[in-house]
Amino acid sequence: MDLAFSPEDLAFQQEVRDWIATAYDDDLRRKMSQSKNGYLDKAGQVKWQKKLFERGWAAPDWPVEWGGCGFTASQRYIFNMELSLAGTPNPSPMGLKMCAPVILAFGTEEQKKQHLPPILSSDIWWC
Asked: Which CATH class is domain 7-121?
C-alpha cells in the first residue's frame, strides 16, 4: 500500500500553505498568541471564519450542496494539518459543528435554507 501523497495532494498542500500565509494575518496571529484555549474573542473568530468562507473552506465536513468543500480524505487531512501547524484558531464549535449538523440531518429544506448560509458565513452567531 502506497501512503504517499499524490502530486495533486502536494499541490493542494502548497495552495493551503500559500493561502494561510496571506489570510492568517498579523492581527490574528497576535490574538492567537494570547489565546489560552485555541479560540479568539467573537470578533476574531468571525474575522477568521469569514476568511475561510470567502475562500470556500469554511465547512470542510458539510455536503457540497450546502457549502462544503468536497475535499477528498487526503485533502481534508492536509487542510486540517496545515491549519494546525500554522496555529490558526479552531472553528467556533457551536454553529458549524453542533447546530448545523443537526439541521443538515433533521431540518426541513426551508430550515436548511434559512439557517445554513448565515452559519457558514458567520453572519449569525449561535450559542
From this structure: mainly alpha
CA distances in angstroms from 63 to 2, 57, 70, listed in the order given: 28, 12, 7
Is residue 54 predicted with pLDDT exceeding 80?
Answer: yes
- Whose cell is 495552495? That residue is 15
Q: Give dist(CA 108, CA 12) in Å, integer.
A: 35
Structural domain boundaries in the chain: 7-121
Q: Residues 113, 119, 121, 126: is their CA dihedral positive or negative?
A: positive
DSSP 65: G
What is the value of pTM for the model shown?
0.91
The position carrying cell 448565515 is 118
